Amino acid sequence: MSFIARIQKGFTLLEVVIVLALLSIITALLFSGFREYVAYQQFTQSVRDIQLTLQESQSSARLSVGGVEHGVVFGSDTITQFIGPVYTLGEPTNVIRTFSAIEMTPSLSGGGNEIVFSSLSGYPLVTGTVLISGTRYDGTVTLEVTAGGVVQY
Fold first, then answer.
1. pLDDT for 89-137, tens place per residue?
2. What is the DSSP string of the chain?
């Protein structure tokens, strides 16, 4: 039987190893990109949730729910909604939201870490910014609360 007449059946071990190596590299690249995408989505969702929490407290104050002010207090990774002119630790009506992928640094007029919205008008008694930094995603957003009550980033 001549060399030309021989028909090769199947794949060589070297060909299989090369294909597996290429598939491993492609999978690693896709997984890395997917992890970054998930971290980005967690970060942006956390920023939206914080903005929504501020707007919700402001709306409750405008509607004069309970006839009093409403506010929020910032922790490094938590935001707590409260009812009344001041935050009281352990109050059963407090709503605490914890975020695992961010850190918050408030910079508010008066130097505190809470924002209270006036009953009926919804205007904040303090203004300022909150720097939101990602712990898994390398990004920051500055959330601003203006004297007119606008909550934006």
1. 999 999 999 998 899 999 999 889 999 999 999 999 999 999 999 999 9
2. --TTT----S--HHHHHHHHHHHHHHHHHHHHHHHHHHHHHHHHHHHHHHHHHHHHHHHHHHTTGGGS-EEEEE-SSEEEEEESSS--TT-TT-EEEE-SSEEEEEEETTS-SEEEEPTTT--BSS-EEEEEEESSSS-EEEEEE-TT--EE-
